[in-house]
Write a structure and sequence with these properties.
It is built from 4 helices and no strands. The chain is mainly alpha-helical. Helix 1 crosses helix 2 and helix 3 crosses helix 4 (59-66). This is Helix-turn-helix domain-containing protein.
Length: 69
């Protein structure tokens, strides 16, 4: 099982402590993955608008969040 698969299974736990810890870990994993892919897109010449469209957020939001990456 991958880390994400394990965490996703734990997030569905009936034990709130286990489930919430898994949700937090998934959120952190997602943030890392998003940052990696935004950097990849920028290195390949993608505009902030193209990235925003792919993430279904505003250009301003994605630029503000990732401009330092």
């Amino acid at each position: 099982m991958t880390e994400a698969t394990t965490l996703a299974a734990a997030a569905g736990s009936p034990d709130p402590k286990e489930g919430l810890r898994a949700v937090l870990a998934l959120r952190r994993l997602l943030e890392r993955l998003e940052a990696i892919q935004v950097r990849n897109a920028r290195r390949q010449g993608w505009s902030w608008q193209a990235i925003a469209d792919s993430l279904e957020v505003s250009k301003q939001a994605v630029h503000k969040k990732h401009n330092g990456n």
